[in-house]
Alpha-acetolactate decarboxylase (Liquorilactobacillus mali KCTC 3596 = DSM 20444), 237 residues
Amino acid sequence: MTKNSKTLYQHGTLALLVPGLLTGTITMGELLTHGDTGIGTGEGLDGELIILNGIPYQVDSHGSANVLKDDFIMPFANSHFANYTELGTISNATSADFEKTALEGKPNSNTFFSVLVKGTFSYMKTRAVVKSSRPFSTLAETAKNQSIFETENVKGTMLSYYSPALFHGAAVAGFHNHFLADDHLFGGHILDFKIAEGAVSVQQFDTLEQHLPVDNKEFMSHDFSKDDIAKAIADAE
């Protein structure tokens, strides 16, 4: 298979998580055939995932970073083959400073792209949701049962994906950031951060390959018109 670094592969949508369609419908083994870099969550919102250099890690609700096996299943995840271009360095930067740098001064972008920041973060606040079991609750209810982690002066990698506003629901409009410390003792879905100093790299995509769980009866029969998708995603993120 040709490794196309211009394609962002996504299994499922954030919208399907809103009503609680949290069943795992793709394995990590399958996801990794579509990329060596990515993010996602496990069945029942089982932790926060980050894939770096082809190795998938799960930051669980206890704060542990676990290397995942190929049979780990997910309702939502994305991956791509890394081919980043160095943008420069950034220092003493808030999340707003980071977004301005990544967008190269523009107010928004109409393309998908990924950003890597490797360096030292003077502040990092993350979360990981506690795994739920059937019958699954809604995204809003499940996300209430989460662990919050905070640390200072941590070295690591922030992996970010930017999605255009017109794709909100399929993904999070704007930036969706996950983090993993170099020592693998801290990570998760980022809630807030400040960069002391880091190297910034960007990779733009011209294709979104959207894969849907058509073999899942709950997904195929659900009426999404009854869900307030935008509000639910905004509240959970």
Remarks:
- Helices lie at 14-17, 28-31, 95-102, 139-143, 217-221, 229-236.
